[in-house]
Structure prediction request, 232 residues.
Amino acid sequence: MNALILSAGLGSRINELTKELHKALIPINGKPMLEYTIDFLVQAQVEKIFVVVGYFHEQFSYLTTKYPQVELVFNESFDTLNNAYSFYKGLVEVKDTWVLEADLLLQKNVFLQRPMKSTYFLIKRDQVGIEWVPVFEQDLVVDFKIEKTTKPSHGGISFWKKEAFKKIKDETEWLVKHQFEFFEESKNYWDHIPMRLLADLEVQAKILDKGSCYEIDSYQDYLYVKEVMSSE
Prediction:
C-alpha cells in the first residue's frame, strides 16, 4: 500500500505565511503540518509515501532522512500547471493508494483501517464554505456538486484500490498525450480525473469523525485551527 501526497503548489491563498515557508510545513503546535499526516501513514504501515514537491521543494529534503518511507517527486511545472499534473508526476507505482492534499491537519489516524472499496473521506464542516458534496446512487458516489454549505464534503483524502488506481492512471496518461490543455486550466484539479470515471470505479464515501481532519485553505482556516488546537 502506498500514499501519494500533492505538495507542489504555491499556497497563494495563505500567502501571509508562505512567503518563506511552504504551506505544508507550517508548524501547528510546533510540528510541521505535513508531519502529522506522514506519522499516521507510517503507523498504518504504508510502504511508500510519494510526496510531489515544487514550490520551496528544497525545504522538504529532510523528510527522506527522517522517514525512510518518503520519496520526493519534483514537479518542475508547479507554477504553470494545475495539481492534476502533480498527480501525474506522482504516478510511480500502481498499488492500493491513498491520495492526499498536503494542506491537511490530521488529528486522528484515518489510515489504520484499509477500506474494502475505493473511498472518498468526507469532513464535517464547522463553517460555511464552497465545498464538493458527493451525489450518491445506491450508496456509491456518482458525481459531486459544488455548493456553499456545511454538509460533509470531500476533504482532500481518498483511497483507491489497485484496479481503480490503474484506471485513473491510464486516464491521466491519456490526458497528457491527447488533451494537455486540461493541465493548463487553473480551475481543474486532479479530482476531476476520477470524476470522469466514477461510473466504472465503484467509489464509496465515509464521513470522518468531527475534529479528526482540518483543511487549511486560507489564513482564516489557519487561525481557526490554531484556536481549536489551543483549546484542546
